[in-house]
Amino acid sequence: MTELIKYTAAQTAAAVAAGEVSAVEVAQAHLDRIEAVDKKVNAFLHVDTEGALKAARAVDDRRARGEELGPLAGVPLALKDVFTTEGVPTTCGSKILEGWIPPYDATLTARLKDAGVVILGKTNMDEFAMGSSTENSAYGPTGNPWDLARIPGGSGGGSAAALAAYEAPLAIGTDTGGSIRQPGAVTGTVGVKPTYGSVSRFGLVAFSSSLDQGGPCARTVLDAALLHEAIAGHDPLDSTSIDAPVPAVVEAARMRDIRGMRIGVVKEFAGEGYQAGVMQRFNESVELLRELGAEVVEVSCPSFTLALPAYYLIAPSEASSNLARFDAMRYGLRVGDDGSRSAEEVTALTREAGFGPEVKRRIMLGTYALSSGYYDAYYGSAQKVRTLISRDFDAAFAGVDVLVSPTTPTTAFPIGERADDPMAMYLADLCTIPSNLAGNAAMSLPCGLAPEDNLPVGLQIIAPAMADDRLYRVGGAVEAALNEKWGHPLLEEAPAL
Amino acid sequence: MPGITREEVAHLARLSRLELQAEELDHFAEQLDVIIGAVARVSEVAGQDVPPTSHPLPLTNVMRADEVRPSLTPEQALSGAPASEEQRFRVPQILGED
To answer: Which domain of life does this protein belong to (chain B) (predicted)?
Structure first.
């Protein structure tokens, strides 16, 4: 059993295809692991034991009939609770959706099922994906498997923790300002935000529609690539979906050769607020890139210093509009409907009872930024900053193939430390936000433990839009070199649960 | 940029359809004031002649063929409704008495 849960997704799929193990055995091993450790970790909001075993049996049946299985058939996955799943609860970490059972699958969910992926359940998250610690979940925080008293990042802390706790070899996250990459960084796992528009948002409960992007989470770069290929591609049900071929990410992950690549170090992602051990591991990674044959140069992106303020105007503005749909009329919670109150009063009472503090803060902040008299100064200026950031990226990518930076300024902080200090919490996304504003592609992968606290540090790689394959080419090479240096994957150093 | 007052937060809460408690108003007023003070830095670029970006993709209207396709049944569409009646969402009173 211990063996099966430590398999990579690629190994699992190969073993299932070869008949060395059944998909049901694989699913059961992970369900047993969840049963054994998830009371401590709290990565899952809902475990779909029956659905998982049924999906696994279907894969075994297909194999028995001699059908060709896809590259992820029989591989278990933890799905962030922000994608709709037909017949399976979807809460987005919010009380306002407690008990809601969607009548349809998100396109991403349907693609996973078509690929024979076994969905184990739905993972914990900051309410409506607003947060960097998973403490904003209405269903309690998730613990970081490296130290259960620390945050696993957010908003996709449940998905990242499930990987690090060996509860699943694959997971899905969504990244609006860093919600895939930052949890990946602080849990020692791999997380990718694909190019905006390359993974369908149909059935992804909207937070900030011009920024939200679903993407793969895994323990290895190759596994992330396999999942990336399974979920990406044009979807007529999402009008912002890009109608172009998916970059060859699996092939890139297998290359392990970055000789001749030009890599830029973003000057602005350093200095005050960056933990010494994070910078140490990052600088070692830059040196490694040189040793592997890449040409490394320093680049400046001066507008990035305005990315955080622009993001905290744009994302709440879009959220204030998107979350207006939670009106207590068509689905979800309804409070105070005693026959004496108007629909508007019932809506306000329901939203007061159903939303947590961070969601309320952001709805009001967005409403403020969009209100007449403030619109030009706030939302209008933030949109200009967005243009300037895209121009900085364009200028940088004219000279280099990818950019690198630390994924987060610090390692995982203790649960509770920033819970009531929104500005301190927002700083966790300092390095990840520019890619969301520009819509390009970015990855975080583990690059060591910070010496002062023995907690994982993430290396961020950023590529131009629709050049996602470059992330995997660089990430695959770095991962292989580091594993060779360490003698094992970083996650092996995590304490037993 | 001016700070934000408790009265303004109460107004925002009404616009946002949030029936905030008194203590929440105090707490949010304090926090929103800090956040707005920090994000106001974007106005540095207000005077610059830069076009705004609302979306990362240069998309215009995306159309699909106007064809009848399978969709949710009324039962499925109403399955999450807090209240329903005769294949419709049942909602509290929307218009006033007079």
So the answer is: Bacteria
pLDDT digit string (tens) for B50-91?
A: 999 999 988 888 888 999 999 999 999 999 999 999 999 999
Q: Which two tokens stand for residue A82?
A: 């922000």
Chain B environment of A343 (Cβ under 8 Å): 91-94
Q: What is the mean pLDDT of each run of 10 residues along chain A (497 residues)?
A: 87 97 98 98 98 98 96 98 98 97 98 98 98 98 98 98 98 98 98 98 98 98 98 96 97 98 96 96 98 98 97 98 97 96 97 98 97 91 97 98 98 94 92 98 98 98 98 98 98 96
Query: Does the beta carbon of A382 lie under 8 angstroms from any beta carbon of chain B?
Result: yes
Please indicate whether, in this complex, the C-beta atoms of A387 and B52 are within 8 angstroms of each other: yes
Give the DSSP letter string of A228-282.
HHHHBS--TT-TT---SPPP-HHHHHHH---TT-EEEEETTS-STT--HHHHHHH
**Residue A321 contacts B, CB cutoff 8 Å:** no
Q: Would residue B94 count as lying in a domain?
A: no
Q: Does residue B29 belong to any structural domain of this protein?
A: yes
Q: Evaluate whether B3 touches B32 at the Cβ level (below 8 Å).
A: no
Domain count of the fold of chain B: 1
Contact A312 B38 (CB under 8 A): yes
Task: Count CB pairs under 8 A between chains A and B.
Answer: 181
**Where in the sequence is the domain holding B21, given as residue range(s)?**
6-45
Is there a contact between B82 and A331 if contact means CB atoms under 8 Å apart? yes
In a domain, B33, yes or no: yes
Report CB contact under 8 Å: B80, A100: yes
Closest residue of A to B88, CA-based?
A: A330
Closest C-alpha among A445, A446, A438 to residue A465: A438
Q: What is the model's pLDDT at position A300? A: 97
| C-beta separation of A446 from A457 below 8 A | yes
Q: Using an 8 Å CB-CB cutoff, list chain A residues near B5.
A: none
| The pair of three-digit structure tokens given for residue A233, joined into one six-digit string | 């591609």
**CA-CA distance, B9 to B32, in Å (whole number)?**
8
pLDDT of residue B46: 82
What are the structural domains, with CATH classification, of chain A?
A: 2-303+387-493 (3.90.1300.10)
CB contact under 8 A, B18 and A361: no
**Ramachandran angles phi, psi of A52, nearest 5°:** -65, -45
Domain for residue B19, yes or no? yes
Q: What does the pLDDT look like over A97-148, one tens digit per residue?
A: 999 999 999 999 999 999 999 999 999 999 999 999 999 999 999 999 999 9
The CA distance from B34 to the nearest CA of chain A, in Å, is 8
